[in-house]
Every structure is written in C-alpha cells, then in structure tokens.
Amino acid sequence: MSILWRVEYYKIVKEILEHPEFIKRKKFNHHSNISVYDHCLAVSKLSYKIARRMHLDYKSAAIGGLLHDFYSKPWQDCSEKTKLLEAHGFTHAKDAMLNAHKYFPNLMNEKIDDIILRHMFPLNKIPPKYKEGWIVTTVDKYISLEVFKNPKFLPKLIGLGKKG
Predict the structure, then answer these.
(1) 163 belongs to a structural domain
(2) Which of 12, 34, 69, 79 has its Cα between 20 and 30 A from that of 86?
(3) How many domains does the chain have?
(4) CB under 8 Å, gap of 24 or more: what pairs does 72-78 form?
(5) Packing angle between helix 88-103 and helix 110-118, nearest 10 degrees?
(6) Cis peptide before 122 (omega within 30 of 0)
C-alpha cells in the first residue's frame, strides 16, 4: 500500500480528529500510559489498512475504530463501586455509540453502530455482525496488549487494586 493511504485515511477521519470533544480524549488514560485518543487512532489506522486490503468497507472500519472508545468520562478516574455488569467494560460501548451519534450523526451508519457496540466481544455477548466489526474488535485487542509492557497496571485494569 502506497503512502497515499494516509491522505485518504485523514480525509475520512479529519472531522473527528479535529473535533474538540474528540480531542478531549487526549487527557483520558486508556490502559497504562496511552491516551484514549492515541489508542483509538492506532486501532482506526490498522483497521482501515486491513479492511482496505481485504476490499471491505474501510471507511466504516476507520470511523468505527476511531469512535469505538468515544465514551463520556475517563473510567480510570471513577472511584465509585458498581455491579460487575455495570462496570466500564460492559457499558462503555453503548456510551461511545451514543456520543458518536451526538457529535458525528452525519458519519454514522448501521455498520459503524455495530462496530462500536460489539467491539468488546466476547465480554459483551453478541459478536460483531460485519467483517469490519471483527477487524476492529481484533485490532482493539491486539493494540491493547500494550498493557503488558507495564504489568503494574494489570490489577487496576481488571478492577482490582487502587484507582489512579
């Protein structure tokens, strides 16, 4: 794939990357030392490249990958106790999809909704409906392996230990 992929990719996601609400995610920690913004950008770029190579809907893969963790507030800062099925891992996909519709309604479609809602499979029981969703789900897991670079964050990641 030539360098031209970057030009095409940024045309697809420019509106999101330049939006002040999405830029706020630079201050949200994802896992370990990476921001939600950087994590989503990495997931989006790789998902775009894979979908494009496979002659799939690479635009939806790029947008869905970028918005899959577009949740409202930084979960790692939350100190209140919740029931297991109300924890961030089970609920943030729906929050991200609602935010995506609120801020980028013109970019949303059924496939992107599915990508965002189902990206936590198998934690969330329903698998992705589209191949692009499987790509984003798999790439998200792959990119999230960064947490193993700093094992001290693992207890916090799974809800054990101190927050912050």
Answers:
(1) no
(2) 34
(3) 1
(4) 72/99, 73/28, 74/27, 74/28, 74/29, 74/36, 76/29, 76/156, 76/163, 76/164, 77/163, 77/164, 78/163
(5) 160
(6) yes
35 strand-pairing partners? 29
Domain at 83, CATH number: 1.10.3210.10
53-92 pLDDT tens trace: 999 999 999 999 999 988 766 655 555 665 544 554 556 7
For 8-30, the DSSP string reads HHHHHHHHHHT-HHHHGGGGSB-
State which residues form the domain around 11.
4-157
pTM equals 0.81
